[in-house]
Amino acid sequence: MKAYEELMGHQRQTEALGQVAGRLGWDQETMMPRGAAEQRGEEMAAMEAVLHARRTAPQVGEWLAVLEGAELDEVQAAQVGHIQRNFTRARKVPAALASKLAQVTSVAQGKWAAARAEDDFKAFAPVLAEVVQLRQEEGAAIADGGDAYDALLQDYEPGATAAELEQMFGALRPRLVALREKVLAQSEPANVRGPFDEAIQMKLSRQIAKVFGYDMRMGRVDKAVHPFSSGSGNDVRITTRTDPEDPFNCLYSTIHEVGHAAYEQGIDKAYLLTPLGRGVSMGVHESQSRIYENQLGRSRAFCGWLFGQMRQAFGDIGVADEDAFYAAVNRVKRGYIRTEADEVQYNLHVLLRFDLEREMIAGRLAPEDLEEAWNARFEADFGYAVDRPSNGCLQDVHWSVGLFGYFATYTLGNVYAGCLNQALRVAVPDLEAQLERGDLEQATAWLREALQQHGGRYAPRDTVARACGFEPSEGPLLDYIDAKFGALYGL
Predict the structure, then answer these.
(1) Continuous segment of H or E residues that includes residue 172
(2) Residues 6+ apart with CB under 8 A from 202
(3) Residue 176 neighbours by CB under 8 Å, 6+ apart
(4) pLDDT, position 272
(5) Domain that holds residue 389
(6) Is residue 154 in a domain?
(7) Rounded distance, CA 32 to CA 90, Å?
(8) pLDDT tens digit string along 403-438?
(9) Given a cut of 90, is residue 61 above it in pLDDT?
(10) Mean pLDDT of the residues in the chain
(11) Annotated active-site positions, please?
(12) Is residue 156 part of a domain?
């Protein structure tokens, strides 16, 4: 097994360097001075060049050749399978292209943030076009004659295809649209009333993070323009954002990111700094953030407990009781922002992005025409016009950093979360009583044991199927949403 040991030793260092690169990205979003953007781009490019060289090193190919057909146990075979897939992919991408992508996307992120602040899509369009062109080149290189978008999709959801996702999304759309129309025809429930001190919001969000099992000894909570989770193993950090008029933006962004972070913290420590030591896909990752945020965090039982915490922290918040608070947390209303969307409308936001990014990668939509295409599609889907770019095509960071193929995993994660919620309620029959006490210990322990601990050991869909005891489909999610919002709005 000398070849295996040497391969894993090499891989461990590569994984460690990848974590360092990730920390540079975290710093760029939270602490880095604005004037350092160009230099940070060079630093990220240098790190990517080192990582690309390690991933494509001839030695890796030699070790893999020796191990082909070797007798490996399940874990060893899974480790080698990940390394083989990444090696094959990396070898198809020229080193200069990988480095250029890291440099351009680092700079583009800063330009996106500035354009978003100024509501100026034209200022962002040129660098977006550069990012799209580079990702088209990368997708074509990986696809080797196949579909470039499917090739990029493998970075986020191995084994998935756009055609399969399109079929699933097509099954979701009719029931979601029908429910949305029924709900919006009803009177809108009262919302909480502020202002809500932002320092208190951050304090409460850290408390709630701990309630959901986030280990602060190996993590931290900071503020960023776009909330995210970063890292794995023993250093997993999250960010959130605050709005003095909307405390739910902060609290539920925190719970969402804790779902991601808890997944990384919950992976078997034997897999630390190996390919199995991180979440297996972004769809599975999103299943954790969504079940934490929605099926648990926005449940009637947990909202009853959270209402008491909000009253203690802020005093009078403008709603009279737990039921009114629950209705406020789950309000369905018109809006532009995906991250602030309710469960009924959220996936419609995702489907818009999925379709537009496929058009850009295919070359059927020029990046400079994105704003016009976005606005037309949004008005067709939601029935009203986008008022400004920061509420439209500039609201998400993803395309600036080259994450084409990522958006689809949000809805796939919601589908997985619906299945996991069904299985969780069978496994923990008194879950509602526990949530009423703000007790998430058994729920998060079940998720950790059934899914999180395995990291990348199994294929994404298999990971969810093993946890649930059945093959995942969109049915449980749709049934959950119909039942919840039908009851809330008296349908």
Answers:
(1) helix 162-184
(2) 221, 223, 240, 242, 250
(3) 344, 345, 347, 348, 478, 481
(4) 97
(5) 162-488
(6) no
(7) 29
(8) 999 999 999 999 999 999 999 999 999 999 999 999
(9) yes
(10) 95
(11) 257
(12) no
